[in-house]
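Entry 12.
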Amino acid sequence: MGPKNTDPKCSCSRAGGEVIYNGKGDLMTRTLVWGHTCAVLTSGGVKCWGYNNYGLLGNGISGYDEHETTPVDVSGLSSGVQAIAAGERQTCALLGSGGVKCWGWSATTTPVDVS
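Predicted 3D structure (tokens):
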């Protein structure tokens, strides 16, 4: 499984490009960039944690001093996500329908459709 994360608020194990979040036992694929991490659960939902500058966590909240050490749900993405990618100040999700939703600096604090 790989080494245990030592953060007592996030019980995660790393295994290659995957993370097991033991709080629910869901296997997730993840993307990690500057200060925040987002993951797609087996249910197709998305959770993010870390710094929330520019609305990086996608939960409708933004602030330089805002951060979460425990994964939070990304608004409107409880299922249907196939993959995610993150940049320094934004994250985007590829939906099973072929659509894309993004949030953060160049979008909003919650996912919006990209055309």
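Annotation: Strands lie at 12-15, 18-21, 26-33, 36-41, 46-51, 67-73, 81-86, 90-95, 100-104, 112-114. The CA atoms of residues 32 and 38 lie 7 Å apart.
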